[in-house]
Specification:
single chain, alpha+beta, 4 strands
């Protein structure tokens, strides 16, 4: 966990671990490199906390 980036995670602005990003058929999902949360890339390119990570991670694997 990176402490200098953690405050951005508190405001739902995440940075993915690029090597772990997967396509689930709808959009890209991955894990945040700072806080470890499951995140999803929106159409505007921003990464936000995923609203249903349990279901989507099983599809992507």
């Amino acid at each position: 966990m990176s402490l200098h980036r953690l405050p951005l995670c508190w405001f739902n602005h995440h940075t993915p671990l690029r090597r772990e990003v997967k396509w689930d058929g709808i959009s890209y999902i991955g894990s945040c490199s700072c806080c470890g949360e499951t995140i999803r890339r929106r159409s505007d390119g921003d990464w936000k906390k995923d609203w249903n990570p349990r279901v989507l991670l099983h599809k992507a694997a």
